[in-house]
Amino acid sequence: SGPALAFYRLWLGAIVLLLVIRIGRTPLHREIWKWALPAGVVFGTNMVLFVVSVKMTTVANATLIGALQPAIVLLVAGPWFGEVVTRRQIACVALAIVGVAVVIVGSAGAPEWNPAGDALAMLSVLAFTAYFLISKQARATVGTLEYMTVVHLAAALVATPIALAHPGALVSFDPVDVLIVLFFALVSGTAGQFVISWAHRYVDVSLSSLMMLGVPVVAAITAWLLLGESLGSVQIAGGLITLAAIGAMLRRPAPAIEPLEAALKTDASIMRSVF
After folding, report:
1. Which of 2, 16, 57, 268 has the most neighbouring CB atoms within 10 Å?
2. What sections of the chain are H helices per DSSP?
3. pLDDT by residue (tens digit) across 264-274?
């Protein structure tokens, strides 16, 4: 079940990160808890909502609804982080959202589609956006390993009572499911979130959130190949629109180098070649 999957994914990730912290004797300072606890609560909420929604509706819908996140992020990226949000970025986000809308419309009526699942996916987007923004703020002062350890621990505590409401689901799975849960927990889950958290310190949140739009497009194609979910021409067109918007957003012109800065770099190159 969705809650059982969230339970195992978060606890396995928390245990692994706690072991790494223990081995490295990394301290968990008060500053880390201040940021990681609220982030963990919204991340755990997002995880439970997402895994439930993805089992209720199509993978394409559950993940593509997440494409609404950059629109929310753009609203706060400027005031909160001092990032410059251009008209071009806003246009790219709008185009990407149009692509998502096309995919959702194209999936209406499909046997795997469920409007309640779509609604849960929408709530999941709001929770993940809150986690995304808190993480961006936190990474200015705290380390990735310490931060993600507390985040996973708090998120696991949020998911536990929900999973224990149906304890039978925690033990009713096939042996092959163990490998899937381990991959989801340690590779695409914990390792994936760890890398994203690390990148927050070096990438504008408005850009990193838009880059995440590549995830749902890949997920929709994979669900079509591996799970047999329907993927019609309208959905494919919507996915292509989303990808085009991502590509346009990521193609940033190289910043011009001032003459003095260019001269200093040239001199430095000459000095290195001499010595």
Report:
1. 57
2. 2-24, 30-56, 59-64, 69-81, 87-107, 115-138, 144-164, 175-182, 192-199, 205-211, 214-222, 233-250, 259-274
3. 454 445 445 44
